């Protein structure tokens, strides 16, 4: 289920980006939307210690937020409130913890992307 959800969001974002900006837009849009979904998924998993959170995440909401505001949108409490269905999560969690974890994951992603582009390695 994880790969299907990630594949679906990536495919939709690539199609959106391609229609709007061609091949470069497809790559950028697809990558950002997929990264946003994975950030929220990891943050929710770490806050719940539950491996089956995919059904609780609205991938379309994540995709829309990332397309509109960039990857940083996944750290916004409003985005997380709209994207996570608390009734679908198997264990209790604190949305503040999810938001903090999402911010950490986003920072790690941004650092990792920057290292791969220009430095010889740290």
Largest sheet: none
What's the end-to-end separation, in Å?
Answer: 34 Å
Average pLDDT confidence is 74
Shape: globular
Beta-strand residue percentage: under 5%
Low-pLDDT windows of residues: 115-122
- Strands, count: 0
Oligomer state of the chains in this structure: single chain
Number of helices: 4
Structural class: mainly alpha
Radius of gyration: 14 Å
Helix content: over 70%
Order of helices and strands: HHHH
Any overview of this molecule?
Among the domains are: 19-50; 54-84. The longest helix has 47 residues, at 2-48. It contains four helices and no strands. With 122 residues, the chain is mainly α. Residues 77-122 are annotated as: Disordered. The chain crosses the membrane at residues 21-40. Keywords: Membrane, Transmembrane, Transmembrane helix.
């Amino acid at each position: 289920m994880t790969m299907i959800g990630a594949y679906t969001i990536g495919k939709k974002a690539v199609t959106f980006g391609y229609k709007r900006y061609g091949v470069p837009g497809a790559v950028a849009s697809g990558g950002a939307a997929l990264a946003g979904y994975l950030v929220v998924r990891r943050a929710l998993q770490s806050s719940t210690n539950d491996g089956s959170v995919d059904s609780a995440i609205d991938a379309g909401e994540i995709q829309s937020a990332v397309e509109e505001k960039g990857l940083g949108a996944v750290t916004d409490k409003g985005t997380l409130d709209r994207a996570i269905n608390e009734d679908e999560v198997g264990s209790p969690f604190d949305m503040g913890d999810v938001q903090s974890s999402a911010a950490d994951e986003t920072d790690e992603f941004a650092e990792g992307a920057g290292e791969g582009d220009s430095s010889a390695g740290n």
